[in-house]
Amino acid sequence: MTNEKVMASVAFKTRSGMSLFDDFNKFSFEKLDEFKPKSNSVEKLIDTLKQEGFEIESQTDVGVSFSGPRKLFESSFNTKVNKREAMFQSAGRAQQKIMFNEAINHNLLNDKVSPFAEAIKLAIPGIPFHNAVHPAPNPPYYFIDVTNEVPNLLNANAVHTAGFNGNGVRISMIDTGIITRVTETHTSTDSAHVNTDHTVRHVYGVWLSSDPGHTGTNYFTGGSFSGNTITLGSSLPGGSTSVETVYSCLHPHYLSNGYTFDDIRAVGGLDVNRDEYGHGTAEAANILGVAPGATLSFVKYSNGAWSNFPLAGFQAAVQHQNPDIITCSWGTSSYDNLLHLEIVNAVSNGTVVIFSAGNGHTDNPGAWSAKVVSTPDLISVGGAYPINGGGFRASNYSSSFDSFMFTSPQRHCPDVAGLVGETPRGVLIMLPTEPGNGMDIDLSSEAFPSGDNTGSNDGWCVCSGTSASAPQTAGIAALLLEKYPNLTPNAIKNILQNSARDITTGNTNSIGPDTAAVGWDAATGFGLVDANAAVNYLNASQFNCYIRDSILDNGTEPVTANRLYTSPDIIVRNEPVLNPQDELGMTVKYRHDLSDEAEDGQDNYVYLRVQNRGTVTGDCTATVYFTDPGMFANPASWTNIGQITIEDLEPGEFRVVGPIVWSDADITSTGHFCLISILDSATDPAPDLTTISSDADFVNMVRNKNNVAWKNIRINDLIPGGSSSHSFYIEGPSGSGHQADLHIDISSLPAGSSVMVKTVKRLIDSASLSNLTITNESSIYSTLNHLGGTAIIDDMNIKSNEKSKVTIYYSVPEGTPDGDYPIIATLYIDGANVGRYTTVVRVSHFAFVGNRNSRELHRKGCSWIDRMSAYNKIPFGDIDRGHKQGFDNCAYCLGNSKR
Amino acid sequence: MNNKQNIIMASVYLKSKSGSSLLKTAGPVQNIEPYIADEETINKAVEILEEKGFKIEAKGITLSISAPQEVFEKTFNVEFSYKKAEKDMPGIIICSKQIMNIKGYEHIIEGVKLMTAGVPF
């Protein structure tokens, strides 16, 4: 052991005779005088200690601290001083090691000090702190802390307990800086050295404390530093001199938690040893709160002023830091094609790239505000607010929007959400920052909720924004990668989405606004990221291929969704898709409206979207059938459209396969039909279809087996407040005297919906009506008003082989929640059920609205939409589908109109 | 603000192997292959730029270079102006030419553009 300096403190004998240790329970402020030292004790002991060779560090009325070489302590007090280390850990934090000195006899006394001192004790270890207050302040409103509550709310603590904290995973953050400049007062060790209690990264200067303006001699000039010690370039006036030291180091939040940092750099000549704006220092804490064992590298791209180089920062991270994950909490002043390309390149090389979705921003290139970076390959993270007392809602501070830049296919942001505060400033999470700069000053200038009620120079601010949610998500990605190091960026994104917690209430800061709802919604995407669910999502040691029954379906058996006939992953197209993985893949995973109506008179093309929620890569075969809805109970009658082999489906992968050609010869021109897809593999076999003998058996199979999916291909998309219609034919058998009954069930439609039924008058003349009233009649047709529930047209006299058209007109009111609303018409001939005609009215998020009358296409939010009649509103999920159906861009909201 | 020593950063578009031009491509692209330059072009570009006083900050699909404003002014015969920060948009440096060129080296360096600024969320 070296003969390094040891520090100790004196517990004086009290003037009352009471013991500071044994009688401390008697202590009160009123009794302070009784516990003070006897008069002159302090001066006399100081003289004694100095004579022994000790140095007096400090003295007060009640105590003295002194220091000296270890050997001096050992000889003076006849003891042995040993170096000890201790490890301690709080929930969710990395283990922290502290070093301290310990004497074998705890109360150091000798004959010379005993007259004055009850005990002398070596200094107990403390947590280093700067003029940045540590621990953090405690303002008087609801906020959360980044090392306990953030990981707790994201269910990361359970993952840490299971032994995963991001160890070995490399994360790069590109932001405004991570190193902070601090000013501290020290007492110099001697005339040439100043000791701090933490690693120094850069020294700006050392001045006498009596020179607070730093106008005099900078005693550091020409000096050096190493570890905790600063060696001065010129000598101080005295050996033990009070100096003001200005230097840079990591914020005490990072130091005290023992986080691991690797490469920290800056581009464009920026001062790497400062975070002038404070943003990077603050938001990086979110990463390490969630993944305290991860290795963080940092690139400073901006000083918050004119020097601002995000692309170079991103390139530098890729080039120099070998990251597994890159996280960015910023947008750009204009769309940057180069940045987009670097992101695509990084993801294709296996790097997970995560960006904030903005705080009321979009990627609209024409907007006068920051542009969100929305490249489809990255993970876009929005916000959910943790409600005080429990629960979450969409954050009204964070963005959600349909991309203006990536419309083919239509990208939506966010993909998922993290924890974000609410308007006006998103004040939510206590975060470290550079004392006295940028955010520290800005947020302290007003009271909550417009500010954070903390000091302007205390090195802490309470904030969030999607600047916080992106790095939180990076932390969860790190936990995933620690457990499964070979996951691709596609798989990481897919798993985060599949395991996210559904957010069902609240609005975001968006045009509209977007409202959270059950399942995927435009406000929060797939929901709030959940570390524990993500890390435990994959089934260990299994190949588990599945195809979704609905957007909500994440492969769990049995599925909980009510409607099983709406698989978004069986996609019919009238023409082959050029790039299926791009056009139908992850970017539009949330979409269920990608199918065309099957076109009679030509081949159609079926694409499937399949996933693997096991940890084992595997192969499977996908078979597609179509059937009449009356024939579910008889699989032998199903028509096998075709089969496709899927190879090497990796853990967590989301893949588009196809096409399976649906031959024209197999497509009927009347009635409607359903498609069924079944996946089969050696380790996850297809169900035995010979066991299906009823509709209930079939439905249970779809519900219980995640490798079976079903799609009713007559689904009609509708905008709330919109209307539409569909038609079918009722056909009489040969011979006369047949009676037809038609039951029309609209009980699933939302309250306030309106339904009319139109058919030939001759059939109505002979029938009895239940729950229907005649509203209009011509010589040929009758139009009936449906009164709700199930309506019956009974005892229609149907002629031999007569084919009569029935048209159902329907509208749903404004404010109808997203969902599927079936209208089920069942036909009986002579009392026997001969067929069912189901149309599913689907209300969901659409980015564009077409005008049936003018054939104009509008972006959601365009003022022209409000002027359309309900019947004329046709929803489109993306611009291309509108164009395909002959709609032209609105010159006002979309531009590039052909008119 | 008009500081000759202010550090400016720009992106250098290199002549690609395929002849495709990223500089002339407006919308998003998903495939980087057509835009990649060969090693010789990259090395030559680095040599030219360093000789003229630029620092190579990073190498990606483009090069990121930095230098004091006066180096840009002298090399590309341009002028700079400064637009102050407004609302949540940062201060922006504006160059008198949208695309800067080095005469005689167009076969190596297709063009140089100022870098887009970032905005912390």
Describe the structure.
The complex is a heterodimer of chains A (899) and B (121). With 899 residues, chain A is of the alpha+beta class. Chain A has 6 domains: 5-122, no CATH class; 146-177 and 269-419 and 465-532, 3-Layer(aba) Sandwich (Rossmann fold); 179-250; 547-713, Immunoglobulins (Immunoglobulin-like, Sandwich); 717-843, Immunoglobulins (Immunoglobulin-like), CATH 2.60.40; 848-889, no CATH class. In chain A, 16% of the residues lie in helices and 33% in strands. Chain A is built from 17 helices and 49 strands. In chain A, strands 8, 15, 16, 17, 19, 20, 21 and 24 form an 8-stranded mixed beta sheet that branches. In chain A, helix 8 runs parallel beside helix 9. The longest helix of chain A has 18 residues, at 466-483. The relative contact order of chain A is 0.07. Chain B is of the alpha+beta class. Chain B has one domain. Helix content of chain B is 17%, strand content 30%. Chain B contains 2 helices and 7 strands. Chain B has helices at residues 39-51, 69-76, and strands spanning 7-14, 55-59, 63-68, 80-83, 92-95, 109-114, 118-120. In chain B, strands 2-3-1-6 form a 4-stranded antiparallel beta sheet. Chain B has a two-stranded antiparallel ribbon with strand order 4-5. The longest helix of chain B has 13 residues, at 39-51. The mean pLDDT of chain B is 91. Strand 18 (330-332) of chain A pairs antiparallel with strand 7 (118-120) of chain B.
What's the short version?
The complex is a heterodimer of chains A (899) and B (121). With 899 residues, chain A is of the alpha+beta class.
Q: Descriptors for this entry?
A:
heterodimer; A: 899 residues; alpha+beta; Rossmann fold; 6-stranded mixed β-sheet; 17 helices; 49 strands; B: 121 residues; two-stranded antiparallel sheet; 2 helices; 7 strands; globular
Question: How much of the polypeptide of chain B forms β-strand, as a percent range?
Answer: 25-35%
Give the CA-based shape of chain A. elongated
The CATH architecture name of the largest domain in chain A reads 3-Layer(aba) Sandwich
Shape of chain B: globular
Instruction: List SSEs of chain B in N-to-C order.
Output: EHEEHEEEE
What is the largest interface, and how many residues per chain?
A: A-B, 56 and 39 residues
- Profile the largest sheet of chain A: 8 strands, mixed
Instruction: Specify the helix fraction band of chain B.
Output: 10-25%
What is the terminal separation of chain B in angstroms?
25 Å
Distance between the ends of chain A: 87 Å
Number of separate helices of chain B: 2
Low-confidence blocks of residues of chain A: 85-100, 123-131
